[in-house]
Amino acid sequence: MENQYKKMEALKYAFPKTVPVMAGYLVLGAAFGILMRVNGFGIFWALLWSVFVYAGSLQYLGITFFTAVVNPWYALFMSVMLNARHLFYGLSMVDQLKEAGRFRPYLIFSMTDETFSVLCSEEVPDHLSRYWVYFFIAALDQLYWIFGTLAGAIAGTVIRFDTAGMDFALTALFTVIFIDQWKSRKDHRAACIGVFCSVLCVILFGKDVFIVPAMVVIISVITIGYWRSKDKEERI
Amino acid sequence: MKYNVISYALITLAMILATVLTRFLPFLFFPAGKKTPKYVIYLGNTLPYATIGLLVVYCLRGVSFTAHPYGLPEALSIAVIALLHIWKGNSLLSIGGGTALYMVLIQTFFK
Description:
The complex is a heterodimer of chains A (236) and B (111). By secondary structure, chain A is an all-alpha fold. Chain A is 78% helix and 0% strand. Chain A has ten helices and no strands. With 111 residues, chain B is mainly α. Chain B is 76% helix and 0% strand. The relative contact order of chain B is 0.06. The chains are: A mainly alpha (236), B mainly alpha (111). At the A-B interface, helix 1, helix 2, helix 3, helix 4 and helix 5 of A face helix 1, helix 2, helix 3 and helix 4 of B.
């Protein structure tokens, strides 16, 4: 009984924290569901992704994997590159989740950009069970995403207007992330390296195969930058 | 449309694997208390920014600047997204507004 009470208290505390995420996830989840549907992929795939892939921008990108029926290794490579930022969310959450016990696997799995931004600034009051609060925040966020996806996938089956150009949502999403990142820091070298190396590789290798060479060039340029900054440090 | 279930299943597996890998690896390799290599921290500070630049280019890779409509719908929509986003800072508004504009442009003016 007491455990039940503890859970309810944690849920009551967690819910308001997730409200800002709710609107975004319902809308972006629905847009994802609609896009899957209008590209010819059913509710099954959309839900499967929202439950087990659960990474917003990757799921949008995944639609292009499906329409082009890409090689799975290529899909893996692209997905890891796109998700690489999660490696670093993980790094900063290692300490915070040290004692999460049975909640740990799910909390690690469900650490999207939004859940991360809520959890990393969250200080749970002492009288509440900390990891139940974390769990409810993470699980509510994913539920919003799944509900959005389902609503969109259903709406996608009844849509009658011309959906040509709706795929541009992916470009719009990345443009917005690009601007957010640009505003968030003073050093724009990495962003410029990403754009310039990619454009260069499109010109050199053509639009169909540029992506792997572009990744190699980007990682090389960044690594050279690392060596040079390290040399400088050592000289000083 | 050719419905290639096995390919779709494999692509889905690859995407699940990518999410699981990128989210769990730090916890396996750099447990609490252990020092993270400098190079890894450096990559963490740079790679995500470069990757998004790459993905913007990836989305626009098919746009032709030498044939009609010369990339105009894309350029206009991205300009509007950028202005909206710098002005209001609301992701949903920027994405929704930009996508709607693009749809109108290619369905009417640049048909």
